[in-house]
Amino acid sequence: MRLFIGIPLAAQVVAQLAAICNRLRADRDNLRWSTAESWHITLQFLGETSLERYNCLVPRLRAVKSLRVSVQLAGLDFFDRAGVFFAGVDVSPELQVLQKRVTDSTAYCGFAPETRPYHPHVTLARAKGDRRGHSLRDLKQKAGREQRFASFTAEEFLLYEAFLSPSGSRYEVRERFAFAAA
User: Fold this and answer.
1) Which residue segments constitute the domains of the chain, with CATH numbers given?
2) Which residues 6+ apart lie within 8 Å of 134 measured at CB?
3) What is the reported pLDDT for 168?
4) Measured distance CA(140)–CA(78) in Å, rounded
């Protein structure tokens, strides 16, 4: 099973992102738009995971203690080389601590943390094919970068399983981990 750990988005933020994507999406734009059901903030990508490692992982994640985490999406941006259009996420001290606690807990089961700095974001679209640079340039002209999003308080983090297909990934929630009330 292909797993990752993430924070689900609040309904109000999902509605804001959906409105942006609906405004920007065009026929034959050469972009694969992610679905609202797939939007999340990744805490750690785990990759292919055996049942044995899964059984190690779940109790470790249940032991992660955190108060609810305030989340604020930043603005719209691009990973040009990867061909990704995304909404950034402000890295609050609470989010940084949660991400570190999650990666520390998964290390016990043999999962290595990223070596790059934590850069949370919500992937909205991916450019595909030979004309992906052109597709991103067109999208950048339409999108702009300044956008105000509602903040929200995350009540839980989730363990997701990813199912890959040519039309895009589909995610199913395997486990839920609630935060302590403030």
Assistant:
1) 2-178 (3.90.1140.10)
2) 30
3) 73
4) 8
